[in-house]
Amino acid sequence: MTVRTRPSARCRKLLLEISRYLDGDLTPARRRQVEQHIGACECCVTMAARLRRTVAACRVEGSRRPPRAVMSRAAARIRALIAKSEQRPRDVAGARSARNKSGNTAG
Amino acid sequence: MKQNMVTRKKSGRRVTSAKHLNPLEERQSEQPVEDEYVDLVRSAVTGDAEALDRLLMRAQEVAWRFSTSVCGHADDAEDAMQEALIKTYRYVGRIREPGAFRPWLYRTVRNACLMGRRKRAGEPTRLQSLDDMAGSHAGPMRIDAPDPGKNPEQLMNNAELRRRLRRALRTLPGSYRAVVFLREMEGLSTREVAKVMGMSEDNVKTRLHRARVQLQATINGGEK
After folding, report:
1. Which among A35, A62, A104 has the least Cβ separation from residue B13?
2. Average pLDDT score, chain B
3. How close, in Å, is residue A87 to chain B by CA atoms?
């Protein structure tokens, strides 16, 4: 993506407002002003698109899952914790009833 | 059941299509994100062992993501996962309000990460690259299958964007990074982020907007 016009000081100042606009955080009056400006400013359209793309990339990044080796160690930790708590059930108030009712299905 | 949860998790996120680039076409608003933990917590509390196992795994995944995205030390991630696991296991039986679980979990994970950082107080501050971390774990990395709906150029652009994003995240102040992580990546509401971070909702919004602006500037810094 290419910005064809250099961002003016006003446009740079407006970036925070555009971010608020994208979240619907502006008052109706301010929103209309920002919309008017964006409608007439190629630079702000581009920057708003970049902001949106950045937010979208963050959300994709948020779906990252641990590597398999890490997941395996996590599962092993659960098994070890449950095995330990079943030896000493008073140590763990949390899941005692769950384990007793449904049996040990860890792993 | 497991498949349902994965699907719900994906649908629960407010995924924004990269096609919607015209800011006038669509405004994002603060939609309450479906709390995927509520059902799991309810089931675990009422004695569903499978739900409990899944909840414990989720708690560890959150701890791993927070550690690697916000704290940046792969070694601390395993400690934070252990801490999240034990505390969640102990907490489950005392939960009265399942909706409160998610903020509690993120607060617990954040505290565990901060404790890990304090232990390293004497060490030089250095954020480890997420790309470096990918290679630092023993065992194979999870490799996502290519999306058949995207052409190679799109996939390459997305991969490049993610690399830039990871680099840009490392340049943010810690509190900004945490807010971006909680709000944008994990989909917590502004109110939940405020609870986790111990700050006002206005402060969360201010940090979030500033962080976004900084991120997009860093990400696009290389573009002419």
Report:
1. A62
2. 73
3. 15
A49/A80 same-domain check: no
Q: Could you give the angle at which helices B201-219 and B190-197 cross, rounded to 10 degrees?
A: 100
With an 8 Å Cβ cutoff, is B137 touching chain A?
yes
Same domain, A54 and A25: yes
* Separation in Å, CA A37 to CA A41, B20, B24: 6, 19, 11
pLDDT value at residue B126: 44
Q: A25 lies in a domain?
A: yes
Taking the C-alpha atoms of residue B111 and residue B191, their distance in angstroms, rounded to an integer, is 18
Whole-number Å distance between alpha carbons of B86 and B81: 9
pLDDT at B68: 87
Least confident of A92-96, B61-65, B159-163: A92-96
Angstrom distance (rounded) from CA B14 to CA B30: 10
CA-nearest of A89, A73, A3, A36 to B78 is A73
DSSP A3-37: -SSPPPHHHHHHHHHHHHHHTT-S-HHHHHHHHHH
For B110-120, the pLDDT digits (tens) are 988 887 766 66
> What is the ipTM, given to two decimal places?
0.73
Q: Kindly report the number of other CB atoms within 10 A of residue A106's CB atom.
A: 19
Residue type, A2: T
Kindly give the interhelix angle for A42-61 and A28-40, rounded to the nearest 10 degrees: 110
Structural domain contains residue B196? yes
Q: How big is the A-B interface in CB pairs under 8 Å? A: 207
**B53, B179, B188, B215: best mutation site toward chain A, by most A Cβ within 10 Å?**
B53
Q: How much is the pTM?
A: 0.71
